[in-house]
Design a protein that fits this description.
By secondary structure, the chain is of the alpha+beta class. The chain has 2 helices and 4 strands; from the N terminus they run H-E-E-E-H-E. Strand 2 and strand 3 form a beta hairpin. The relative contact order is 0.25.
Length: 76
């Protein structure tokens, strides 16, 4: 796989978003699997929209400074 292809794949994974794990209260980077740091949280109606950044220096998503989005639906 070429470097260009790896970059495209990493960016596509980041833009697809990540799953918020309500039990662990965290989201993981879809490329390296490390815990992704929450950069910002916004409330929208009955949901929390979070933007995350990977903190693993050896991860391509971290090197590209791509942020990932997760959505948590708030009950009640």
């Amino acid at each position: 796989m070429s470097t260009h292809d790896k970059v495209r794949m990493a960016m596509a994974l980041a833009r697809k978003g990540v799953e918020w794990d309500s039990e662990k209260k965290r989201a993981d980077c879809p490329l390296c699997g490390e815990r992704a740091r929450v950069v910002t949280t916004k409330k929208q109606d009955r949901a929390r929209v979070r933007y995350h950044a990977c903190t693993n220096d050896s991860c391509l998503i971290c090197a590209l400074k791509e942020q990932m989005k997760s959505v948590e639906v708030v009950e009640g």
